[in-house]
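For the sake of clarity, the format in which proteins appear in this thesis is described at this point. The record quoted next illustrates the convention:

___
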Amino acid sequence: MAVMDFENQAGFSGQWNLGGGMADVLVTTLLETDRIVVLERKNIGDVMGEIVRQGGDFFRNEGRVEKGRLKNAKYLVRGVVTDFTVTGDASGWFGVPRARLFGRGSTARVAVNIKVSDVESGEIVTSIKTEGSASSGGLGGEVNYKKVSFGGDAFFRTPLGKATDTAMRRAVKLILKNLPIQYWQPRVAEGGLDLVVINGGKNVRVREGDIFRVREEAREIKDPVTGNVIEKAPGRVVGRIKVRDVKSASAHATILEGEARRGQVLEAVE
């Protein structure tokens, strides 16, 4: 998943880069779930520049990053900030300070719209709206936002920071709920006469003694009018393998019959 800078439609024009800051908060919140792989796109130029730099004559060969290994994004996330306000702000940064009743503090509200698109098809997978709000809880909790950096520890202790955190956590929860489930696709990672390596192990509950059919790649059947894939015809069975050793993220198998080549599809035998 790659996250782009948010668009600022909230009317906020302070010293913060609201679009970039919101994207960074979303990335951090996504990573905290340990369920999403987030790819660098905001500063991808720096990454690519380092790869090119390492290939120059001034750098040693040992430890060089191999070219062509950057990952492709499956999903692209775009966001819009629709509300980023503080009512009753005494600092005047969110407008002229307003008189208030004794004991009442300021209230912050943050609202965002987020769209997740499938990069391959361009289809919008999910579109969500979420918001968060928080109060300073009285005159003793006033904040001078002019002296606070967006996204820092001090920011998240303010009503505006708490509202931002709430909105983003709700957004991530909805994103994870609405994303299509990606099931494990068993494949031959490496094939040979003596050893076949499977692209999954204990992480996908492969067990010693499991038997898989080896099939050629499935053939996509497309609608002649729309071009949409409407069905997949299973590939021809070309072999059968048996798991003999299971590792954390891979498994080793032996060929019982036929062949097994890298990339071929595996089908568990019940």
